Amino acid sequence: MQPKKAQKRRDTQDIELAMDLMVVLSEKDDRNVENAIQQRLANRLELRTFCDLKAETVAISKLVKQFGKDAQNIRQIMGLFGKFKRIIRFEEPSAQDFSVSSRTLEKLPSLSIPHEFLCPITLEIMTDPVIVATGQTYERESIQKWLDSNHRTCPKTGQILRHLLVVPNYALRNLILEWCEKNDFELPRKAISVGSDGSSSELVKQISCLVQDLSSSQLNARRHAILELRTLSKDNPDNRILIVNMGGVTPLVQLLSFPDSKIQEHAVTALLNLSLDNANKRVIAREGAIPAIIDILQNGTDEARENSAAALFSISMLDENKVLVGSANGIPPLGDLLKNGTVQGKKDAATVLVNLSLHQANKSRAIKAGAIPPLLDLLEDQNLGMIDKALSLLWLLASHPEGRGELGRLSLIKTLVEIIKNGTPRNKECATSVLLELGLHNSSFVLASLQYGVYEHLVDIARNGTNRGQRKAYSLLQHMSKCEHIA
């Protein structure tokens, strides 16, 4: 039926689309095209966001290779993209907007660059990537221009920014530099500095001496060296590479077992900083750091335990390290931190457990380690701000038979329904996901949630929730319909 309906109205829509294109692409008319026409055309072509334009630009690069930079149709398309950028308030109109065609075409040969390396605003490789309040990354110069123009939203997501601070994304910058070196791609010089003062040789000498002092017989020398390396590795990705290349990991791992709680704390924190580099994660695991970090997680000071959890999270971003952490009995102390730790410790433990539980064997370990009861307690405490994290972990554990068995409490269903009724959009999405996971394997959960009045709220989520929330709510409503027929 849908194709038939589409067939009936195809001609009218095609004519309107063609007319809009003729007006917008006209190079003879110097007058500004009405924004309404451009907006209508952008909607019909489904080029409504920066992501849409970015993906389309990548596709256009193939046409450039096939037809050449001077092809008339390519120039028109790139000019059209420039107009669409202004429609969605990409940046304030300026003289630069009218040179977007030639400027973008010059950059198109480099579009074999990984998409995550491209700034969502300029669609060019980033040299100084920074993170805004929503977690999105942009080229510093571009996002600063956006903010300086009195915009208070994230260009990519449209969300209102809670603050206007930007934080350097050193991890991504390091990946970009590695990719450029591997592919012989030259970045502007401002992106390849080796230290804030440019004195790379002095820095190398300094780090070399500090690494040697980690094994010094003088306790004060060790303490000074480890504290300095912790500081140097905190913010600068180049320093992390230098420290590892100069053999800093091995003595740091050895100091994890040193009978001094402060040295242990500094050592695990330095390794946490170094692990922010992906290549370093493997080096740290290969040097046998994971069991020693787990030991500090179990027996260290509060701050050392929190940083140990954060280090395990960073290291376990690699799948092979998820297995190593689980097999090294790292999950039980995380369960204890989740139950008895500080507020920050609980947050760190939940974050690590979510990451580790992406590996199937670790789900069973987390359940046996007693992770579920404290998670249910976290759902009841609104002040901790951990509902989403707790629900995410419960969703993963509910996909395991042992987890579903332990979660088979109607009190949990009541809590989930309350969150679906009164939570934030993200809360509702996560709670719906957990309820769907449980309900697909046990219809009694579904029937219980219906008794608590969840149905009308699921309908609202299916209409107005987040994208994922809408999908989950729709699936759950369909499953409920089947369960009611069976009942």
What distinguishing features does this structure have?
single chain; mainly alpha; Herpes Virus-1; 68% helix; flat
Gist of the model:
The chain is 68% helix and 2% strand. It is mainly α and 487 residues long.
Task: Give a verbal description of the structure.
- This protein is an all-alpha fold.
- Among the domains are: 12-88, no CATH class; 115-183, Herpes Virus-1, CATH 3.30.40.10; 200-328, Leucine-rich Repeat Variant (Alpha Horseshoe), CATH 1.25.10.10.
- It is built from 27 helices and three strands.
- The chain has helices at residues 2-25, 35-44, 50-67, 72-87, 100-107, 140-148, 170-182, 200-213, 219-235, 237-245, 249-255, 261-274, 278-286, 289-299, 302-315, 319-327, 331-340, 343-356, 360-368, 372-380, 387-398, 401-406, 410-422, 425-439, 443-451, 455-464, 467-486; strands spanning 129-131, 137-139, 167-168.
- A three-stranded antiparallel sheet has the order 2-1-3.
- β1 and β2 (137-139) form a beta hairpin.
- α4 crosses α5 (100-107), α11 (249-255) packs antiparallel against α12 and α17 (331-340) runs antiparallel to α18 (343-356).
- Mean pLDDT is 81; it is low at 4-13, 27-32, 89-111 and 189-199.
